[in-house]
Amino acid sequence: MFRHIFQVSKPMRGKLIRAVGGSGSAFENNSVTKEQQLTEALKRAMPGISYVCVEDISGGCGAMYEISVEAKEFIGLSRVKQHRLVTETLKSEIAEMHGIRIHTTPSSSSSKN
Fold first, then answer.
1. Per-residue CA distances from 30 to 1, 67, 96, 113 (Å)
2. Are the C-beta atoms of 39 and 74 separated by less than 8 Å?
3. Residue 53: phi, psi to the nearest 5?
4. Which end of the chain is more exposed for a tag (fewer CB within 10 A), N or C?
5. pLDDT (tens digit, 9 = 90+) per residue, 33-44?
């Protein structure tokens, strides 16, 4: 009887192991995906970005990020307005975070993408 249950459940066990185990830790997979997601959202909203770096500084759990952006869109804006542009772009993502550090710099007109 147990042998039959064991054989019948064999296909499900493989799926369960892949779903739970995966490759790498769940924290690593989540943070890489989130970092890429934030980067892509910024690039879509500000095509004049010449540099962007998004780093998970929470130890891998995705609760806090440090974002550095250099973009033409920041030229002539105060630092507060530059940061508002970033926070408005990432409004829904920021709602899920514990905290965020933002560093912005206007691109010089000679920078190329």
1. 41, 17, 13, 28
2. no
3. -140, 125
4. N
5. 789 999 999 999
Give the pLDDT confidence score for residue 30 in this predicted structure: 56
Average pLDDT of the chain?
Answer: 80
Q: CA 20 to CA 23: how far, in whole Å?
A: 9
pLDDT tier for residue 29 given thresholds of 50, 70 and 90: low
Residue showing tokens 């989540």: 30
Q: Are 110 and 75 in contact (CB under 8 A)?
A: no
Distance CA 21, CA 36 (A): 22
User: Would you say the pTM of this structure is higher than 0.85?
Assistant: no
Owner of token pair 């409004």: 91
User: 52 near 69, Cβ under 8 Å?
Assistant: yes
